[in-house]
Fold this sequence. Notes:
Low-confidence stretches: 1-30, 58-64
Oligomer: single chain
Helix content: 40-55%
Number of helices: 19
Structural class: mainly alpha
Largest sheet: 2 strands, antiparallel
Amino acid sequence: MKFKKIYIVLFSIVFLGSCDLDPxxxxxxxxxxxxxxxxxxxxxxxxxxxxxxGSNPLEGDGGFNNPHLAIQVEYQMGEVxxxxxxxxxxxxxxxxxxxxxxxxxxxxxxxxxxxxxxxIFRANLVLENLGNASESNxxxxxxxxxxxxxxxxxxxxxxxxxxxxxxxILNTEEEEDRVIAFTRVNEDTIYNFIIDDLEFAVNGGLDNxxxxxxxxxxxxxxxxxxxxxxGQYGQAQGLLESVIASGDYSLEPNFFDVFYTEANNExxxxxxxxxxxxxxxxxxxxxxxxxxxxxTGSNYATAELVEALENNGGDRTQxxxxxxxxxxxxxxxxxxxxxxxxxxxxxxxxxxxxxAGNDWIVTRYADVLLLHAEAILAGADQTTSxxxxxxxxxxRVRAGLDPQTVITRQLIMDERRVELAFExxxxxDLKRFGVAQEVLAAFSAANSHDFQAFELLxxxxxxxxxxxxxxLTQNPGY
Length: 478
């Protein structure tokens, strides 16, 4: 399902999104006259998804004048900041991340932070107006809004560490609200808030009927990943087994179909895009190509990832990377590229590659199966659990690889790397497994970069610190 922009003055407001920092709607009358019934509240919920989708910038602005690209820039921190991806030749879209020279002024650092808080603002706006919802829909509306708010906070806390906790609409003309808006709180407090939102959503009456809106399985999967991040393996295992037992999801037999048959059986939660309007399309897949889009060649495979795919990718490799036709020896990602032609094994570029409708997959069933094996492993070095082997080997066998009889931590990391390459999991996986510093230091040394341990957290955006007038503080090292 694609969600069109909602052109209502109310929703044009950006919290923590511009230098004048005004969370007050441009028309108080619009606020007073909106959210009066279920239809208007639903429009507000769809607008949260719109914020997560981001706004594909218009031609000529390069994306730098758009503060809300949201997940469209996430690949820079999720993949290029790891040992998976690089730029073709110093592309401005990601070069700071490739070389571990990210600064508080780096464009993606700023727009991603602002985008997540914009999503949180939209969710809070809905949550504060649920008094006008019908009794039959109020719990579902609240569950959906709290799921999306929790997802935004989960992204923020993993990438930036301690962040401000905003659980209501703030008026920063009031000193107390201004302090709340810019005061960073401890990660533990943020995680408790996320868990509270997601636990409510688990019991909020959601089902598994949608792939592009909140579903029970989407909530359970994200909550399980939260628990895995915190080392609470039993809670994660139970949630993942609920997703598996639902019977609503399965691995696609053909890996290609995961990305080019949208809302397929494997997709649990995706962000929808449309290929007819530039404002509802995505431009990031064009950035993965050479000489098109906002950047050029900005998410190429590292030599290390190419080797991993050649050794362990199996049937996935041809639909994960291809050799750049114009730059032999360099490899592009083919996941999410526009207009595929599986019959001849090529991916042709449309006349305007920045108008692409490929949905972004946040999580899918293969992710669930590998997380399930990780939860059973529970931080140990290896396991022979039949349940873990069943989940782990289902992913391998789909790729045409031999099943394993023993699962190790390294095998799970290796399998997640090749199965989920370019899906923005790698950097966060390395952190969750506790090996990010070791892996990235070795990768950096081998490629003449200068990774340092403090770079496991992104810097707090410099413009936000300036706006806060000294209230918002910076992460160490930046």
